From TrEMBL:
It comes from the Eukaryota. GO terms for cellular component: SNARE complex; vacuolar membrane. GO terms for molecular function: soluble NSF attachment protein activity; syntaxin binding. It comes from Polarella glacialis (Dinoflagellate). This is Alpha-soluble NSF attachment protein.
């Protein structure tokens, strides 16, 4: 199917939303949002095959609109996510705009893990661009906050929390970064699967203490880490 045929599908879906239009629109039963969604999805898939990402994204946005009109917030969020996933191939701004709308729906309905995953995806998008330092830090922090609210989001919380700490350290927020590295180190010690990573977290915290330049505090911190983790005590670093 050509892009032209996909465009015709969009027109057909548009007519479903309008319910036929004109004086006799009442005969068609008004807007048929479910049917429109199905046709927009067909069009979106054809646009994706043609690598027409903007057009495909627009179709998913229309699907989200129809889902909202049908009263399905869950489907609306899913379609907004689809739109973002397509648009990120050509526009980070366009992708983030749709992701943010989906995040609002997910968080309002208590789907914190889904919201966290989208926030983490946004952070990774900005990270890949290597120029959006402020945005990386902001979205990793927001993602961590969402994962913290979810019972099954512990590993992702740790991942995002540590990423946030890295960016906070680069911004000179040393106390904040140290607090996170120490917290994650102590938490790792309480988990048999993670305990070997505790030394790295304490090492990062110790390095930041050195950067801060207070030798007394550094020595106190090192003594604390050695008492907590024997592996740190035997470390040559």
């Amino acid at each position: 199917m050509s892009a032209g045929a996909a465009t015709e599908l969009v027109k057909k879906a548009d007519s479903k939303i309008k319910g036929g239009g004109g004086l006799f629109s009442f005969l068609t039963g008004g807007p048929k949002y479910d049917e429109a969604i199905e046709i927009y999805q067909q069009a979106a898939n054809q646009f994706k095959l043609a690598k027409l990402w903007q057009e495909a994204g627009n179709c998913f946005v229309q699907c989200a609109y129809c889902a909202d009109k049908s009263g399905s917030k869950s489907d609306e969020a899913n379609f907004l996510t689809e739109a973002g996933n397509v648009l990120k191939k050509i526009s980070t701004v366009g992708a983030v705009e749709n992701f943010e709308k989906a995040i609002g729906i997910y968080s309002a309905s208590g789907r914190f893990q889904q919201a966290g995953k989208l926030l983490m995806s946004i952070a990774e998008l900005y990270e890949a661009e290597r120029l959006q330092h402020k945005e990386c830090k902001e979205f990793y922090k927001r993602a961590a906050e969402m994962f913290e609210l979810d019972d099954h989001g512990k590993s992702n919380f740790t991942k995002c929390n540590l990423k946030y700490a890295e960016y906070a350290a680069k911004d000179g927020q040393l106390e904040e970064a140290i607090r996170i590295f120490e917290s994650e180190g102590e938490k790792a010690l309480g988990n048999n699967l993670l305990q070997y990573g505790a030394k790295e977290h304490f090492m990062n915290a110790g390095i930041l203490h050195l950067v801060d330049g207070d030798s007394v505090t550094v020595n106190l911190a090192v003594d604390k880490y050695r008492a907590l983790d024997p592996r740190f005590a035997s470390s040559r670093e």
